[in-house]
Give the backbone structure.
Amino acid sequence: MLKSLTIAGAPDQCIAQLQKFREAGIDLPTIQFNPVGDVLDSFRLFTDTFSEEK
């Protein structure tokens, strides 16, 4: 059940999972940032992955 409600994995996997939520009609997800290792590096990866400015 947890996998059906969360997004986790490599950047390309996370983008694909978010797209599935969007296709299901979820347009305002709740985000809980859980850094791994260096917080700043994790946050940069997070923002680079989900930023619409690519």
